[in-house]
Structures are given as C-alpha cells and as structure tokens.
C-alpha cells in the first residue's frame, strides 16, 4: 500500500497541506489530536469522513510514514548538497591517506565510555 492511499495533498485543499483521501481533513488534525492526548478513536469519532476501514493495519503503517514525513518537511536542496559535498570531501581525505578511518565499533566504545562518566 502506498502512502497516497491514505493521505494526499493538492494546492486547492488547504494550500497543499496533506489531507486524508476523500476528505478535507488535514493530517495535521490527527497530529494535534495525538499530541493533545486524544486517542485515534477520539479522532475518528470527531472526523467521521475519515473512515475506520481506511485505517487498516497497512494503512496505519503508511500513515505513520506520512506523519514522519510531514514532521520532517521537504528536503532542503542546499542542505542536501552541502552534506553530499562534505561526504565526498571526507571520502577523498580517506582515499588520499590524509585521515585514518576509525572502525565503527571503536567509535561506539568511545561514546559508551564517555556516557559512563
């Protein structure tokens, strides 16, 4: 099941905010309900156009993915480009022998030791 089967966005509905398919109920409404301590059942009772059947286990999984994406927001192209350049620079430094790579296990051992202090 694709996320689009649970939520979608269109510029003519809440300026492109993600809404549940077949409704004008924004995904943000569910986020607000859950953050406010309400249950999914409370949300479904208060927004009857969002059907219980549309929230099968698979749909709930996709909804969680959509919620995470909504919270993360769209990727910032400048940030993505900067991280790519940084990763390429670090890779070149390793290849050219300018820096010595550290095994991941040693990194985690060092972190654990520092956290124990």
Low-confidence stretches: none
CATH topology type of the largest domain: Arc Repressor Mutant, subunit A
Largest sheet: 2 strands, antiparallel
Task: Label the overall shape.
Answer: elongated
* Strand line-up across the major sheet: 1-2
Helix amount: 40-55%
CATH class category of the largest domain:
Mainly Alpha
Structural class: mainly alpha
Whole-number tally of structural domains? 2
Portion of residues in beta strands equals 5-15%
The total count of helices amounts to: 5
Secondary structure tally: strands: 2
Helix and strand pattern? EEHHHHH
Taking the alpha carbons of the first and last residues, their distance comes to 47 Å
Q: Give the C-alpha Rg.
A: 22 Å
Corresponding CATH architecture of the largest domain: Orthogonal Bundle
Mean pLDDT: 83
């Amino acid at each position: 099941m694709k996320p689009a089967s649970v939520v979608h966005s269109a510029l003519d509905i809440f300026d492109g905010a993600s809404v549940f398919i077949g409704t004008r109920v924004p995904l943000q409404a569910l986020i607000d309900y859950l953050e406010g301590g309400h249950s999914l059942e409370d949300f479904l009772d208060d927004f009857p156009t969002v059907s219980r059947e549309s929230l099968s286990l698979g749909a709930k999984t996709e909804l969680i993915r959509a919620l995470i994406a909504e919270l993360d927001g769209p990727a910032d192209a400048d940030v993505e480009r900067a991280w790519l350049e940084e990763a390429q620079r670090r890779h070149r430094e390793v290849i050219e022998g300018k820096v010595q790579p550290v095994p991941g296990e040693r990194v985690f051992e060092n972190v654990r030791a520092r956290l124990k202090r």
